[in-house]
Specification:
The protein contains 15 helices and 15 strands. With 452 residues, it is an alpha/beta fold. The chain folds into 2 domains: 4-232, 2-Layer Sandwich (VC0802-like), CATH 3.30.2130.30; 244-450, Rossmann fold. Strands 1, 2, 3, 4, 5, 6, 7, 8 and 9 form a 9-stranded mixed β-sheet that branches. A 6-stranded mixed β-sheet has the order 14-13-10-11-12-15, with helices on both faces. Strand 7 and strand 8 form a beta hairpin. Helix 3 (87-100) crosses helix 4, helix 3 crosses helix 5 (187-201) and helix 6 (254-264) packs across helix 11 (386-396). The chain is elongated.
């Protein structure tokens, strides 16, 4: 199957002289995630083309499209055709692309097919072989030859943006863009010409410039590029361009979303999870691993570190006031995250804290826990409410895993009435008295890296 993908970037295009650094990072991330599938990436000025080096099967095509749909730095991609800059080749390609819009719709016996003829029983609506009335637009062979041109299956087959197969297209729009001003037709003239071609060959279709059922895009560059459906990618910046952050990953809803949002701003991420076996179950650990796998869809280089936190948390519980347990536990976590950042060359620590969502996330408590690292603390959820976070968790596919009923260390050791507004100097002094240094050193020496 011969396929070429048009890649669209947005925020990267706003960069100045260092733009190429962002582009190289994006392409390196894509190649890494494709894991051995050889591709060529070419282009410039916000339009890039990804071409598989070898012919690809359906499974490989799906893997490429899944990668493109999750690549930070891309806003979208399309399955594209590149042809010579002559009106005959462009016309033939447009006819083919439009015909593919109907390829998955079975026309009942005796009904009128999109090109105006009567379709046989159980047949798939074909495109017309009739030539358009404007001879300048295309030759007789343009529509006739289109069926023989290799092209990927229709948009209905996309794993990213499947269409409702019950809704047969009724309207369309041609959107032309002429970057090469030496081309014979202006953008407007080309759109008019190709629009007439489509109407002449597909009798049931009408032009709708405001809300079409589908759009055909034609770009005149070094060559002519024709594409239709634009599939969505997450946008943002390529992961890794802003360095690496250590994500404190629990089994809850918030921290996976925090990791996703910072990855979208260019952070590569290593995740750090605290387990308290046997107080927490093996299922709790497996739940976190599944969440990490979901995040790794977007971050192919991500590692998951596991710290056995039981001795630390038991020591805290036995040596502080009950209402301070959660606060001191989070301070110990921050110290361990700081050590891991030093070890791995990370430049920040990421948490899923949202101001005043729970007792440990009051401004006073956040101040105290944050004082136990000198690294920048990135809190992308700080101003979001719970429903906004849940919506994002559902969008990235972590929500259903996060709500599985396996508690983590924070909930197991949580006191009934945690402190809300501690005096900074007072709790800082109290934390020093419980002497956690040896416990933290021992736990960090046994840190494990899990394969995900």
């Amino acid at each position: 199957m011969n396929i070429i993908y048009l890649l669209k970037t947005c925020e990267i295009n706003l960069k100045g002289e260092n733009k190429s650094i962002f582009e190289k990072q994006l392409f390196a991330n894509i190649r890494k995630q494709l894991d051995g599938i050889k591709v060529k990436i070419s282009g410039r000025k916000g339009r890039f083309f990804l071409t598989p080096v070898d012919d690809i099967d359906e499974e490989t095509r799906k893997k490429i499209e899944k990668t493109l749909s999750s690549a930070f730095g891309l806003t979208g991609y399309s399955i594209a055709r590149i042809v010579e800059k002559n009106i005959d080749d462009i016309s033939k390609t447009v006819i083919d692309v439009v015909s593919r819009q109907f390829a998955n719709y079975v026309v009942p016996s005796g009904s009128v097919a999109p090109h105006g003829s009567v379709a046989p029983s159980g047949s798939t609506a074909p495109h017309s072989n009739a030539a358009p009335s404007d001879g300048a637009a295309s030759s007789d062979s343009a529509a006739r030859d289109a069926a023989s041109v290799p092209f990927p299956r229709t948009n209905c087959d996309s794993p990213v943006a499947a269409r409702d197969a019950a809704s047969v297209p009724q309207s369309f729009k041609i959107s032309s863009r002429r970057s090469d001003k030496s081309f014979k037709y202006s953008s407007y003239e080309l759109s008019c010409l190709l629009g007439k071609l489509v109407i002449d060959n597909f009798k049931t279709l009408k032009v709708n410039l405001k809300n079409p059922d589908f759009k055909i895009n034609v770009e005149i560059r070094d060559k002519a590029v024709v594409y239709s459906q634009i599939y969505k990618s997450p946008g943002g910046l390529p992961s890794g361009i802003a360095g690496k952050g250590i994500l404190l990953l629990s089994g809850g809803i918030d921290s996976p979303v925090a990791g996703y949002m910072m990855a979208k701003r260019g952070c590569a991420i290593d995740a750090l999870h605290f387990e308290t076996y046997p107080y927490t179950s093996e299922q709790s650990k497996e739940k976190v691993i599944e969440i990490a796998k979901k995040i790794k869809t977007y971050l192919p280089k991500m590692k998951l570190y596991i710290i056995h936190f039981t001795e630390i948390q038991v020591h805290i519980k036995q040596n502080c006031k009950q209402e301070e347990i959660t606060l001191f536990s989070r301070a110990a976590m921050m110290r361990i995250a700081h050590l891991l950042a030093e070890k791995t060359g990370a430049n920040s620590i990421i948490t899923g804290e949202s101001l005043s969502q729970v007792a440990s996330q009051t401004a006073e408590n956040i101040r105290f826990t944050g004082s136990h690292t000198t690294y920048p603390l990135l809190r992308p959820l700080i101003g979001m409410d719970k429903q906004e976070i849940i919506t994002k968790a559902k969008e990235i596919g972590t929500y259903e895993i996060s709500i599985l009923p396996y508690p983590d260390c924070c909930s197991v050791f949580a006191p009934p009435h945690p402190i809300l507004k501690p005096q900074f100097e007072k709790v800082t002094a109290a934390f020093k008295t419980i002497d956690l240094d040896t416990f933290i050193e021992n736990a960090f020496a046994k840190i494990a890296i899990l394969k995900i």
